[in-house]
Amino acid sequence: MKLVTLICMMLFSMTVYAKTFTFIVPQKIGGGTSIWASIVAKELEPHLGKIKIKHIPGARDIPGFNKFHNGLLKDDHTVMVSHGGNGVAFLIENVDYDYREYDSVGLMNLNILAAKRNDIGTRAKIRFAGGSGMAPEGFAMALLLCGQMDDIDGYITCFRENVTWVRGMKGSERRLAFKRGELNATRENPAAYKKHVARNTEASMWFHHGLLQPNGTHADDPNHTGFMLETLYEEIYGEQPSGRMYNAYKLIKSFRDGIQKALWVRKGNPNKQRLIDALAKIQNSAKIEAKVGKYNWLIGKDGDNQIKTLLTLITHDSLSDMVRFSNIALGLKSKYKSNLVN
Q: What is the pTM of this model?
Protein backbone atom coordinates (compact mmCIF):
# COMPACT_ATOMS: atom_id res chain seq x y z
CA MET A 1 0.00 0.00 0.00
CA LYS A 2 2.81 2.39 0.88
CA LEU A 3 4.52 1.61 -2.46
CA VAL A 4 1.30 2.35 -4.37
CA THR A 5 0.90 5.65 -2.52
CA LEU A 6 4.49 6.60 -3.23
CA ILE A 7 4.10 5.80 -6.93
CA CYS A 8 0.89 7.86 -7.11
CA MET A 9 2.61 10.78 -5.45
CA MET A 10 5.52 10.56 -7.89
CA LEU A 11 3.20 10.40 -10.88
CA PHE A 12 1.22 13.38 -9.58
CA SER A 13 4.43 15.35 -9.05
CA MET A 14 5.65 14.49 -12.56
CA THR A 15 2.29 15.57 -14.04
CA VAL A 16 2.36 18.91 -12.23
CA TYR A 17 5.96 19.61 -13.21
CA ALA A 18 5.34 18.61 -16.82
CA LYS A 19 2.62 21.20 -17.30
CA THR A 20 3.66 24.14 -19.44
CA PHE A 21 4.03 27.57 -17.85
CA THR A 22 2.40 30.46 -19.69
CA PHE A 23 3.85 33.97 -19.56
CA ILE A 24 1.30 36.71 -20.25
CA VAL A 25 2.83 39.65 -22.14
CA PRO A 26 0.54 42.70 -22.44
CA GLN A 27 1.80 43.84 -25.86
CA LYS A 28 2.37 42.73 -29.44
CA ILE A 29 5.21 40.49 -30.53
CA GLY A 30 8.32 42.56 -31.07
CA GLY A 31 7.76 45.07 -28.26
CA GLY A 32 10.48 45.67 -25.70
CA THR A 33 8.79 43.62 -22.98
CA SER A 34 7.94 40.88 -25.48
CA ILE A 35 11.61 40.55 -26.46
CA TRP A 36 12.72 40.64 -22.82
CA ALA A 37 10.17 37.96 -21.86
CA SER A 38 11.37 35.71 -24.70
CA ILE A 39 14.98 35.96 -23.54
CA VAL A 40 14.09 35.28 -19.90
CA ALA A 41 11.80 32.39 -20.83
CA LYS A 42 14.56 30.71 -22.87
CA GLU A 43 16.91 30.98 -19.91
CA LEU A 44 14.28 29.58 -17.53
CA GLU A 45 13.20 26.62 -19.67
CA PRO A 46 16.05 24.30 -18.57
CA HIS A 47 14.74 24.68 -15.03
CA LEU A 48 10.97 24.87 -15.64
CA GLY A 49 10.32 23.07 -18.92
CA LYS A 50 8.75 24.59 -22.01
CA ILE A 51 7.28 28.08 -21.51
CA LYS A 52 4.50 29.42 -23.70
CA ILE A 53 4.34 33.18 -24.24
CA LYS A 54 0.84 34.55 -24.74
CA HIS A 55 0.57 38.09 -26.09
CA ILE A 56 -2.51 40.10 -25.11
CA PRO A 57 -2.03 43.57 -26.64
CA GLY A 58 -4.32 46.53 -26.17
CA ALA A 59 -4.48 50.24 -25.43
CA ARG A 60 -1.38 51.30 -23.46
CA ASP A 61 -0.74 47.61 -22.68
CA ILE A 62 -3.45 47.60 -20.00
CA PRO A 63 -5.93 44.90 -21.22
CA GLY A 64 -3.48 42.02 -20.85
CA PHE A 65 -2.74 42.84 -17.21
CA ASN A 66 -6.46 43.33 -16.53
CA LYS A 67 -7.21 39.89 -17.97
CA PHE A 68 -4.56 38.35 -15.74
CA HIS A 69 -6.12 40.05 -12.73
CA ASN A 70 -9.68 39.12 -13.66
CA GLY A 71 -9.18 35.41 -14.16
CA LEU A 72 -6.00 34.18 -15.81
CA LEU A 73 -4.11 34.31 -12.51
CA LYS A 74 -6.25 31.42 -11.21
CA ASP A 75 -4.15 29.06 -13.30
CA ASP A 76 -1.17 28.17 -11.13
CA HIS A 77 1.05 27.91 -14.21
CA THR A 78 0.29 31.42 -15.45
CA VAL A 79 2.81 34.21 -14.84
CA MET A 80 2.22 37.90 -15.59
CA VAL A 81 5.02 39.87 -17.26
CA SER A 82 4.59 43.60 -16.63
CA HIS A 83 6.57 46.71 -17.53
CA GLY A 84 7.02 50.30 -16.41
CA GLY A 85 4.08 51.63 -18.39
CA ASN A 86 1.84 49.35 -16.34
CA GLY A 87 3.31 50.93 -13.22
CA VAL A 88 2.48 54.45 -14.37
CA ALA A 89 -1.04 53.41 -15.43
CA PHE A 90 -1.58 51.91 -11.96
CA LEU A 91 -1.00 55.38 -10.51
CA ILE A 92 -3.17 57.49 -12.81
CA GLU A 93 -5.61 55.34 -14.81
CA ASN A 94 -8.65 53.20 -14.11
CA VAL A 95 -7.09 49.76 -14.20
CA ASP A 96 -8.31 46.52 -12.64
CA TYR A 97 -4.91 45.15 -11.67
CA ASP A 98 -3.29 45.94 -8.34
CA TYR A 99 0.31 45.05 -7.47
CA ARG A 100 -0.62 44.74 -3.81
CA GLU A 101 -2.68 41.63 -4.61
CA TYR A 102 0.11 39.51 -6.16
CA ASP A 103 3.30 37.80 -5.14
CA SER A 104 6.50 38.82 -6.86
CA VAL A 105 8.48 36.12 -8.59
CA GLY A 106 11.13 38.67 -9.39
CA LEU A 107 11.84 41.95 -11.13
CA MET A 108 14.73 43.95 -12.54
CA ASN A 109 15.52 47.26 -10.89
CA LEU A 110 16.03 49.14 -14.17
CA ASN A 111 16.58 52.60 -15.57
CA ILE A 112 15.81 54.78 -18.60
CA LEU A 113 18.51 56.81 -20.33
CA ALA A 114 17.94 60.22 -21.91
CA ALA A 115 20.19 61.59 -24.65
CA LYS A 116 20.59 64.95 -26.35
CA ARG A 117 22.26 66.12 -29.50
CA ASN A 118 25.73 67.54 -28.98
CA ASP A 119 24.84 70.91 -30.51
CA ILE A 120 22.41 71.97 -27.75
CA GLY A 121 23.38 73.76 -24.56
CA THR A 122 22.48 73.12 -20.92
CA ARG A 123 19.24 75.12 -21.06
CA ALA A 124 18.39 74.94 -24.76
CA LYS A 125 14.83 74.70 -26.04
CA ILE A 126 13.98 71.00 -26.20
CA ARG A 127 12.15 69.16 -28.97
CA PHE A 128 11.11 65.74 -27.67
CA ALA A 129 8.70 63.00 -28.77
CA GLY A 130 6.58 62.35 -25.70
CA GLY A 131 3.93 59.87 -24.62
CA SER A 132 2.70 58.05 -21.55
CA GLY A 133 5.87 55.96 -21.28
CA MET A 134 7.99 59.10 -21.49
CA ALA A 135 6.20 61.06 -18.78
CA PRO A 136 9.07 60.81 -16.24
CA GLU A 137 11.36 62.45 -18.80
CA GLY A 138 8.94 65.39 -18.96
CA PHE A 139 9.12 65.81 -15.18
CA ALA A 140 12.92 65.52 -15.28
CA MET A 141 13.21 68.16 -18.01
CA ALA A 142 11.05 70.56 -16.02
CA LEU A 143 13.37 70.20 -13.04
CA LEU A 144 16.59 70.56 -15.04
CA LEU A 145 15.38 73.48 -17.15
CA CYS A 146 13.42 75.40 -14.52
CA GLY A 147 15.26 74.85 -11.24
CA GLN A 148 13.52 75.45 -7.90
CA MET A 149 9.98 76.82 -8.19
CA ASP A 150 7.26 77.28 -5.61
CA ASP A 151 4.38 75.44 -7.23
CA ILE A 152 3.44 72.97 -9.94
CA ASP A 153 1.75 75.62 -12.08
CA GLY A 154 5.07 77.45 -12.30
CA TYR A 155 6.71 74.31 -13.63
CA ILE A 156 3.86 73.84 -16.12
CA THR A 157 4.40 77.34 -17.51
CA CYS A 158 8.17 76.95 -17.62
CA PHE A 159 7.91 73.55 -19.29
CA ARG A 160 5.62 74.89 -22.00
CA GLU A 161 8.05 77.72 -22.68
CA ASN A 162 11.08 75.45 -22.97
CA VAL A 163 9.88 72.08 -24.29
CA THR A 164 8.05 71.14 -27.47
CA TRP A 165 6.38 67.89 -26.44
CA VAL A 166 5.58 66.09 -29.69
CA ARG A 167 2.91 63.44 -29.29
CA GLY A 168 1.92 60.51 -31.46
CA MET A 169 5.27 59.47 -32.92
CA LYS A 170 6.07 55.77 -33.18
CA GLY A 171 9.42 54.52 -31.96
CA SER A 172 10.90 54.24 -35.45
CA GLU A 173 9.70 57.75 -36.33
CA ARG A 174 11.08 59.17 -33.11
CA ARG A 175 14.49 57.60 -33.64
CA LEU A 176 14.74 58.80 -37.21
CA ALA A 177 13.67 62.33 -36.22
CA PHE A 178 16.35 62.41 -33.52
CA LYS A 179 19.00 61.15 -35.94
CA ARG A 180 18.07 63.87 -38.43
CA GLY A 181 18.06 66.58 -35.76
CA GLU A 182 14.32 67.30 -36.00
CA LEU A 183 14.20 66.28 -32.34
CA ASN A 184 17.14 67.28 -30.17
CA ALA A 185 16.45 64.93 -27.22
CA THR A 186 15.29 61.36 -26.85
CA ARG A 187 15.14 58.49 -24.38
CA GLU A 188 15.59 54.73 -24.53
CA ASN A 189 15.74 51.72 -22.27
CA PRO A 190 19.31 50.46 -21.74
CA ALA A 191 19.09 47.83 -24.50
CA ALA A 192 17.64 50.23 -27.08
CA TYR A 193 20.13 52.94 -26.04
CA LYS A 194 22.99 50.66 -27.02
CA LYS A 195 21.39 50.00 -30.38
CA HIS A 196 20.01 53.40 -31.37
CA VAL A 197 21.96 56.10 -29.49
CA ALA A 198 25.36 54.94 -28.22
CA ARG A 199 26.83 54.72 -31.72
CA ASN A 200 25.46 58.11 -32.78
CA THR A 201 28.47 60.46 -32.83
CA GLU A 202 26.16 63.49 -32.90
CA ALA A 203 24.52 62.58 -29.58
CA SER A 204 25.53 61.94 -25.99
CA MET A 205 24.05 61.02 -22.64
CA TRP A 206 21.94 63.78 -21.06
CA PHE A 207 20.58 62.25 -17.87
CA HIS A 208 19.23 59.09 -16.33
CA HIS A 209 16.92 58.46 -13.38
CA GLY A 210 19.03 56.30 -11.08
CA LEU A 211 18.14 53.06 -9.35
CA LEU A 212 15.52 52.86 -6.61
CA GLN A 213 16.89 51.88 -3.19
CA PRO A 214 15.01 50.16 -0.31
CA ASN A 215 14.77 53.47 1.62
CA GLY A 216 13.13 55.28 -1.31
CA THR A 217 16.24 57.16 -2.45
CA HIS A 218 18.03 56.59 -5.77
CA ALA A 219 21.59 55.52 -6.53
CA ASP A 220 23.72 56.16 -9.60
CA ASP A 221 23.57 53.63 -12.41
CA PRO A 222 26.84 51.61 -12.36
CA ASN A 223 26.52 51.15 -16.13
CA HIS A 224 26.27 54.93 -16.74
CA THR A 225 27.85 56.79 -13.84
CA GLY A 226 27.73 60.55 -13.40
CA PHE A 227 24.52 61.32 -15.28
CA MET A 228 21.84 60.86 -12.62
CA LEU A 229 19.34 63.72 -12.59
CA GLU A 230 20.19 64.70 -9.02
CA THR A 231 23.88 64.96 -9.93
CA LEU A 232 23.23 67.18 -12.94
CA TYR A 233 20.74 69.33 -11.05
CA GLU A 234 23.30 70.05 -8.34
CA GLU A 235 25.95 70.90 -10.96
CA ILE A 236 23.57 73.48 -12.50
CA TYR A 237 21.90 74.95 -9.40
CA GLY A 238 24.36 74.24 -6.59
CA GLU A 239 21.93 72.22 -4.50
CA GLN A 240 20.05 68.95 -4.54
CA PRO A 241 16.51 69.04 -5.99
CA SER A 242 13.69 69.13 -3.47
CA GLY A 243 10.09 70.19 -3.08
CA ARG A 244 6.76 69.07 -4.47
CA MET A 245 7.79 68.80 -8.11
CA TYR A 246 10.75 66.64 -7.19
CA ASN A 247 8.52 64.40 -5.07
CA ALA A 248 6.08 64.03 -7.96
CA TYR A 249 8.99 63.19 -10.26
CA LYS A 250 10.32 60.56 -7.86
CA LEU A 251 6.88 58.97 -7.68
CA ILE A 252 6.27 58.61 -11.40
CA LYS A 253 9.77 57.57 -12.41
CA SER A 254 10.08 55.07 -9.54
CA PHE A 255 6.85 53.29 -10.49
CA ARG A 256 8.00 53.12 -14.10
CA ASP A 257 11.63 52.08 -13.60
CA GLY A 258 11.47 50.24 -10.27
CA ILE A 259 9.09 47.64 -11.74
CA GLN A 260 10.00 48.11 -15.38
CA LYS A 261 10.35 44.37 -16.05
CA ALA A 262 8.62 42.11 -13.53
CA LEU A 263 7.05 38.65 -13.08
CA TRP A 264 3.94 38.14 -10.91
CA VAL A 265 1.70 35.28 -9.73
CA ARG A 266 -1.40 35.20 -7.58
CA LYS A 267 -0.90 35.14 -3.84
CA GLY A 268 -0.60 31.59 -2.60
CA ASN A 269 0.38 30.15 -5.97
CA PRO A 270 1.90 26.72 -5.17
CA ASN A 271 4.46 27.12 -7.97
CA LYS A 272 5.79 30.42 -6.64
CA GLN A 273 8.85 28.99 -4.91
CA ARG A 274 9.71 26.84 -7.90
CA LEU A 275 9.60 29.92 -10.13
CA ILE A 276 11.66 31.93 -7.64
CA ASP A 277 14.30 29.19 -7.41
CA ALA A 278 14.56 28.99 -11.20
CA LEU A 279 14.87 32.76 -11.53
CA ALA A 280 17.63 32.82 -8.91
CA LYS A 281 19.63 30.40 -11.06
CA ILE A 282 19.57 32.65 -14.12
CA GLN A 283 19.85 36.10 -12.53
CA ASN A 284 23.46 36.45 -13.68
CA SER A 285 22.73 35.28 -17.21
CA ALA A 286 25.22 36.69 -19.71
CA LYS A 287 22.52 36.74 -22.38
CA ILE A 288 20.21 38.92 -20.29
CA GLU A 289 23.05 41.24 -19.25
CA ALA A 290 24.18 41.56 -22.86
CA LYS A 291 20.68 42.75 -23.72
CA VAL A 292 20.01 45.26 -20.95
CA GLY A 293 23.25 45.76 -19.01
CA LYS A 294 24.15 44.61 -15.51
CA TYR A 295 21.16 45.43 -13.32
CA ASN A 296 20.14 43.73 -10.10
CA TRP A 297 17.28 41.28 -9.89
CA LEU A 298 14.99 41.57 -6.87
CA ILE A 299 13.65 38.06 -6.40
CA GLY A 300 10.78 36.79 -4.23
CA LYS A 301 10.49 38.79 -1.03
CA ASP A 302 12.88 41.42 -2.34
CA GLY A 303 10.41 42.06 -5.16
CA ASP A 304 7.56 42.25 -2.68
CA ASN A 305 9.58 44.76 -0.66
CA GLN A 306 10.13 46.86 -3.79
CA ILE A 307 6.36 47.32 -4.04
CA LYS A 308 6.23 48.32 -0.37
CA THR A 309 8.95 50.92 -0.99
CA LEU A 310 7.09 52.29 -4.01
CA LEU A 311 3.87 52.65 -2.03
CA THR A 312 5.63 54.85 0.55
CA LEU A 313 6.23 57.43 -2.20
CA ILE A 314 2.49 57.95 -2.70
CA THR A 315 1.17 60.90 -0.74
CA HIS A 316 -1.69 63.27 -1.46
CA ASP A 317 0.69 65.99 -2.62
CA SER A 318 2.98 63.81 -4.74
CA LEU A 319 0.08 62.07 -6.48
CA SER A 320 -2.07 65.17 -7.04
CA ASP A 321 0.92 67.15 -8.34
CA MET A 322 1.89 64.29 -10.61
CA VAL A 323 -1.64 64.11 -12.01
CA ARG A 324 -1.82 67.89 -12.56
CA PHE A 325 1.49 68.13 -14.40
CA SER A 326 0.69 65.02 -16.48
CA ASN A 327 -2.72 66.39 -17.49
CA ILE A 328 -1.81 69.99 -18.27
CA ALA A 329 1.87 69.99 -19.28
CA LEU A 330 2.05 66.58 -20.99
CA GLY A 331 -1.53 66.22 -22.21
CA LEU A 332 -1.95 62.79 -20.63
CA LYS A 333 -5.37 61.85 -19.30
CA SER A 334 -4.64 61.27 -15.63
CA LYS A 335 -6.91 60.64 -12.65
CA TYR A 336 -6.27 61.27 -8.97
CA LYS A 337 -6.83 57.89 -7.26
CA SER A 338 -7.47 58.58 -3.58
CA ASN A 339 -7.48 54.86 -2.74
CA LEU A 340 -3.70 54.78 -3.31
CA VAL A 341 -2.82 57.55 -0.86
CA ASN A 342 -1.03 56.61 2.36
A: 0.91
